[in-house]
Design goal:
- The chain is built from 13 helices and 12 strands.
- The chain is an alpha/beta fold.
- The strands form 2 sheets. It has an 8-stranded mixed beta sheet with strand order 1-2-6-3-5-4-7-8, with helices on both faces.
- The longest helix has 16 residues.
- Bound molecules: threonylcarbamoyladenylate (TXA) and magnesium ion.
Length: about 350
């Protein structure tokens, strides 16, 4: 996954150290991960974590993920680390997998939003790891965790570039919040979240949020199926129906509606853009005044990588609507379908007239 790492910007050790000091002093620092950028605070400092909620405009009943360095001690953060969790860490850490475990007693309530669990993740991005190591080195016991949600305002599209973060938090940046630039996020969508906090109640592994690491890969390591959430599963804000939305109304369209749109039929008033993974020819001039084309990658990993940056860019295009070709309903597209399905649900457009 790191084939492009050499081309990515690399923050200096001075910048990393300044960000680590900000965290140690109770401030916020934004940093790249392989999934999306995070807005970090010292996970053991409740006032610092409260600053994340204030900056994001996020309700206090949404827990945040604690990020740890590869050398971090999971047993310091979790009250119980079941064998299944250790197997998955061995297989997928560092990487885009968050494990929900029973939390250790010293984890502040603000991190877990009052739940008895904690979300733990060890990111693979080298800049994230450098920051986590530098921060842990400043903590008296050498264990440091950075609580970090995606570095966007609540309900908005996650940032995959440092400039996205600076655009979301101009006030914090003006007040000196470090934003470490690690280039474009490689995965592009948020980590897979797997709940293992209720194994002692006979509930197996539960997939709370699909991601780059798939349920199939997880089940193969566990030798057991992965379940869908039931009513008693822990809450996750990324699992709200309307989440991850751009400002421009977004409509998911099937092949038939795309074919009609390409004939200029059924288009809403105003300029629209069609986001398609088909290899479409350029549109005739009379149609392209009303409908623009954006061709996106046809494989799920590259599509995911481009998704949020594309949505952010198109959001500034002054379009009346984003018409997004629905991806295939196959398991390899699960994570992408989850995100764009929620984005479309935010608008619940009535398209019966089209
Ligand atoms: O890829 C990612 O996971 C990114 C990067 C920055 O690591 N982070 C991220 O954080 O997406 P956030 O806060 O935007 O989404 C984390 C999700 C939320 O839906 C939250 O409710 C859930 O994880 N979560 C965190 N701790 C949890 C817990 N103890 N129990 C259940 N859900 C939890
Ligand atoms: Mg988020």
């Amino acid at each position: 996954m790191n084939s492009k790492a050499a081309a990515q910007p690399v923050p200096s050790q001075q910048e990393i150290d300044r960000a680590a000091r900000c965290l140690a002093e109770g401030g916020l620092a934004a940093f790249p991960t392989e999934t999306v950028y995070g807005l970090g605070a010292d996970a053991e400092n409740p006032q610092a974590v409260a600053r994340i909620y204030a900056a994001k405009g996020r309700p206090a009943n949404h827990p945040v993920i604690v990020h740890i360095a590869p050398e971090g001690d999971v047993d310091y953060w979790a009250a119980q680390v079941p064998d299944q969790a250790r197997k998955l860490m061995q297989a997928f850490w560092p990487g885009p997998l968050t494990l929900i475990l029973k939390r250790a007693p010293h984890i502040p309530d603000t991190v877990s939003a009052g739940q008895d669990s904690v979300g733990l993740r060890c990111p693979s991005h080298p800049v994230a790891q450098d920051l986590l190591r530098a921060f842990a080195a400043l903590k008296p016991g050498g264990q440091g965790g950075v609580a970090a949600p995606s570095a966007n305002k609540f309900g908005q599209v996650s940032p995959t570039l440092a400039e996205h973060v600076r655009g979301e938090f101009p006030d914090e940046v003006a007040q000196g919040m470090p934003v470490l630039d690690g280039g474009a996020a490689e995965v592009g969508i948020e980590s897979t979240i797997l709940d293992l906090s209720r194994l002692d109640q006979g509930v197996g592994a539960v997939l709370l949020r699909p991601g780059h690491i798939s349920a199939v890969q997880i089940a193969a390591v566990l030798g057991q199926p992965v379940h869908s959430p039931d009513a008693a599963a822990p809450r996750a804000s990324g699992t709200l129906k309307a989440h991850y939305a751009p400002h421009t109304p977004l409509e998911l369209i099937d092949g038939a509606r795309q074919a009609r749109a390409l004939r200029g039929e059924g288009l809403p008033d105003g300029r629209c853009v069609l986001v398609s993974y088909d290899d479409l020819p350029a549109l005739p001039a009379d149609l392209s005044a009303r409908l623009q084309l954006r061709i996106v990658p046809a494989d799920p990993a590259h599509y995911a990588q481009a998704l949020y940056a594309t949505l952010r860019e198109l959001d500034h295009g002054g379009y009346a609507r984003l018409l997004v070709q629905a991806p295939p309903r196959t398991p390899d597209w699960d994570a992408v379908n989850d995100r764009i399905g929620r984005a479309a649900a935010a608008f619940a457009l009535d398209t019966s007239g089209f």
